[in-house]
Design goal:
Radius of gyration: 21 Å
Strand content: 15-25%
CATH superfamily of the largest domain: Periplasmic binding protein-like II
CATH architecture of the largest domain: 3-Layer(aba) Sandwich
Domain Solute-binding protein family 3/N-terminal: 25-247
Helix content: 25-40%
Pfam families: SBP_bac_3
Order of helices and strands: HHEEEHEHEHEEEHHEHEHEHH
Number of strands: 11
Low-confidence stretches: 1-23
CATH topology of the largest domain: D-Maltodextrin-Binding Protein, domain 2
Keywords: Signal
CATH class of the largest domain: Alpha Beta
Signal peptide: 1-22
Number of domains: 2
InterPro entries: Solute-binding_3/MltF_N (IPR001638)
Distance between the termini: 41 Å
Length: 279
Amino acid sequence: MHSIRKISLCLCLSLTPASLLAQEKITAASDVGFAPYSMKSMSGEFEGIDIDIAKRLSEISGIDIEVIQQPWSTTFAGLAAGKFDAMWSAATMTPERQEMMAFIEGYGEALDGLLMRASDDDIAGAEDLQGKTIAINKGSSADAWLTERQDEFGITIARFETSPDAVQAVISGQADGYMMYKTAAGFAAKKQPMLKVSSFAIRKGAPYGYAVRPEDLELRNKLDAAMECLKASGELDEIYVKWTGLQPEPGGITNTPQPGFGQPGTKFYEETDHEMACD
């Protein structure tokens, strides 16, 4: 009798869709090394904003989220090929990406800010850029944005191949500021007291978030519901403050649960009314 039950159990498991089994434990690919979102600690463990979020969403949703390291350049292809279950990096929700992935509601907004010396006067607006030398990563979105406005702002652009070189240019006085992702600027300033983040920021109006394959909308919806709870409790704001030292804006994407499932306006968004079920 016991052997018959075991055989029946095995048959049931073998007939269960893989996407449903994966909801109990999923692998989530992260671009480890993209500070302050996903990094390796001195002990070799993963840490950062995305890691803290994964831990809390696991607890809220009941889904065991195992974060694995994946090069950013192969993340989207790997997700589509089924090598892992979720893309777990701060991916801006571009129209192209919306065609191939189902996004969970965004957990941040793509903002560029200026990392500058703490002893210098704040750069509060575009008018304060006049005559300044601004460091950027060569070929970045900030490079394109500033190049279009170089004459308008009256700035000199200093291009660098790596972020550490650009940061060093600010510290040494070679540049007055380094335009970069504002969360990354906050992380750098938190680690180095001689630096700070300017008030001036470029709001691109584009959220970023995690995603799953379009056929895994049930999984997306469970993770999305957990993300809503993380926002409503204020915990997501706390995670950002912990890693960047910057306080998210009230009423912003980090503390405002979105209606429905997914990010409103994206291709696989579901405008489904539901109540948050948060402990």
